[in-house]
Amino acid sequence: MSSTLMVQARTIASKGDLRNIRSEGKIPGVIYGKGLASPTNISIDAKELALMLRSHANAVIEVDIPGAGKHPVMMAGLQRDALSRQVMHIDFHRINMNEKIKTAARLEITGVSPGEKEGGMLQLILHEVEIECYPKDIPESIFVDVSNLAMGEHLSISDLKLTAGVEVIQDPSTVIVAVLAPQKERTEEQLDAMADEAEEDRKHYEAAQAVDIS
């Protein structure tokens, strides 16, 4: 369990009540999932929530649910204001620590590639990958070592060094980072094609997840 988040119970409220909650520096939310008799409406301190989102949004956290005790949960949904991007509502899903789950892990580049030293441009195609593991094994990030990456070379998901118990569930051949030749030697269409390939892979995964969420 990486952290504990304090929550308060709240009743189902009108739009005016929700505005009052936010004006008090809190964010309304709901907790649901297996092991709970029914969804529980909560509010959370906005500063504590912001800290959690900045540090590790995909972490397993413990919440003390009023009337239901302490439970492990993960963020399942986040609503933001379209203009201000302020968090307006958050959903948490109660999980079973003894069952594998699917979530996302952030990619973190380490090292300096020889290709960059020769004038190439390092391009991170994927910023995170979808993984499956037990909740206790969720990594804060997956390191991508580019210190041996020459000009024109790339690393794929299959090249990632994963900790025990963690499996990436995307296509192993998906490119995650590449050292591109100077811009004048590579067209904008080529760059867009690489980005489109990564986006298409993400959409396929999300479509599969839509029918797999319990």
TrEMBL record:
Gene3D superfamilies linked: Ribosomal protein L25, beta domain, Ribosomal Protein L25, Chain P
Q: Which parts of the sequence belong to the Large ribosomal subunit protein bL25 L25 domain? A: 6-92
Task: Give an example GO cellular component term for this record.
Answer: cytosolic large ribosomal subunit
Q: Which UniProt keywords apply?
A: Ribonucleoprotein, Ribosomal protein, RNA-binding, rRNA-binding
Q: Which SUPFAM superfamilies match?
A: Ribosomal protein L25-like (SSF50715)
Output the GO biological process annotations, alphabetical, semicolon-separated: translation
GO molecular function (one) = structural constituent of ribosome
Where in the numbering of this chain does the Large ribosomal subunit protein bL25 beta domain appear? 100-183
What function is annotated for this protein? This is one of the proteins that binds to the 5S RNA in the ribosome where it forms part of the central protuberance.
Output the NCBIfam families linked to this UniProt entry: bL25_bact_ctc
Q: What subunit structure does UniProt give?
A: Part of the 50S ribosomal subunit; part of the 5S rRNA/L5/L18/L25 subcomplex. Contacts the 5S rRNA. Binds to the 5S rRNA independently of L5 and L18.
Q: What does the similarity note say?
A: Belongs to the bacterial ribosomal protein bL25 family. CTC subfamily.
Q: Know the name of this protein?
A: Large ribosomal subunit protein bL25
